[in-house]
Design a protein that fits this description.
Layout lengths: L11 E5 L5 E5 L6 E3 L4 E4 L8 E9 L4 E2 L2 E3 L6 H11 L1 E7 L7 E4 L3 E9 L8 E7 L6 E10 L2 E11 L20 E4 L2 E4 L17 E2 L7
Antiparallel strand pairs: 1-2, 3-7, 4-5, 5-6, 5-8, 8-9, 10-11, 11-12, 12-13, 14-15, 15-16
Amino acid sequence: MMLSLGLLSCNRQTEMTADNSTVPKIAGSKIKFHKLENLSVIGNFDGDGKQDTIIQHNFSRKTKTEIENSPDPFQNDWDTVVKWFNEQDADLFLTLNKNNQDTLNLGLAQGLYCLLNIGDNNADGKDEIALVIDYLDISEVNSCKIYSLCGKKWTLLKQFGIHESSFEFTTPKAPIFNNIKDFLEKTNGKWVYKDYSLESYETQEAVKKMMELKIEKCK
């Protein structure tokens, strides 16, 4: 429940932020907005040997605009945040910085906790990406999803359970996570992972140790 962006279009007033950007808000409301940078990651994702960039977007189908500012989940009631995103008919998706490339639609969410290039794990000549979606829910049980471009279409090749406590931070600004602590980490040049769905939810004691990550090739 950390990442969020947003624009509000109905009955709005506009106030200036410290960086002189505008933050629309409902007239008479006390909603506190914040701005979040879109996550991005570089790599050879289409197999042409050239560097690509994947960029996160959160789009409002209501206003037909990119969401830039939204209610801060640390300064607003959680129900307010959820209602706001639903009213925006928000749509989270990823794009590649090339023409005629598939868009990876991820649905209604605040944003992403992380967006990682895990390299060419399945030796098919393309880098894979791992991501965790910041859903608009109250559960801390989530999943890491691993995608690859298969036949020019984004395809889910693997997913496993994680706990959102891995993304807790004490700094004023959310850090950029380059792994998922205790669930997806790089050790001795190889990615290893642990599936939270194979743990006891009551005791949170692992029933399996970190295993080497192995991704199947596109079918």
